[in-house]
Amino acid sequence: MTIYDISKKAGVSIATVSRVLNGSDKVRPSTRKKVMDIIEKYDYTPNAFARGMGLHSLQTIGILCADSSDLFLAKAVYYLEQELQANGYESLLCCTGYNLDIKQSYLNLILSKKVDGIILVGSNFIGTSEEENQYIKDVSTQVPIMLLNASFDYPNVYSTLCDDYTTMFEATSSMLNAGIEDILYLYNSNSYSGAKKLSGFKAAMEAHHIPDYEKRIHFFKGDPQQMDDIADFVERLAKRNITFHGVIASEDPLAIGAMKYAQRKGIDVPNDLSIIGYNNSMLTTCCTPELTSVDNRLETQTHQLVQTLLGVLSGEEMPKKSIFSGKLIKRGTTLF
User: Fold this and answer.
1) How far apart (Å, rounded) are the C-alpha atoms in residues 269 and 282?
2) Of 203, 197, 291, which Cα lies nearest the Cα of 250?
3) 195-226 pLDDT, tens per residue?
4) Max CA pair span of the chain
């Protein structure tokens, strides 16, 4: 018996069950009795909502990310921990890697620590099939699951993300409107976020009636932290007579790699080659010229995620999905 089962049997929302367990006075007596009757009938022992029943709560949130060396994920974890600490919560962090079985094992491990909720940082936790996402469904029946930079529609799962599709569409359109049509698109992930960015790029190219743009879309399989390898990759593309006067990258390191290629070849950035990155990481101001990049409003996302989580734990009705628009931060690698 889980809180999800109780909500179904009582015919009320999970948030209403949470309010009953937390002793909230915002529940009608008849509804409270209905929920408590189910709890008593099935001898339900609350876990994530134990605080309202007078049981011990560790005031702890589990955080899972794939790779703490990734600039985006590391910054996200930092913001989340700061927000949680400011609200009286501690956190437990696990770095899972990208293997599905290991992600599932770590999720169950963090659940065994009696955490009040779990935050999954990064869109790689969401797969493309029901089977790949079953482990999230299973755990969400016991504690709230918060997704950062991904979306998944399921009870007790809450999503906070940037509208990567529209943001990438607009970033691409800004380059096209500047008269640069032969754009090389570099990406290194087929995650939920990666797929949205790629779709946004394709949609912009099609909306501007750019022919044969597919031949300029390329996946980099190597380590995205190795910018020299990325530069080598771009150079190999150029040697295959793939012409381009613009580069749009799904991540800042890929854009930096394109800049290194330009420097090797004596290509003037931005006069002869315009470059746009994504995530607006610290790398954008560590190069010359500084990198134009999309700000996906990570700090705002993490603040909203924690506020949603706190509301859920307090038994409030909270939005299942919070979506923010990104913004192109113009610097020295573009003239437009």
Assistant:
1) 19
2) 197
3) 999 999 999 999 999 999 999 999 999 988 89
4) 76
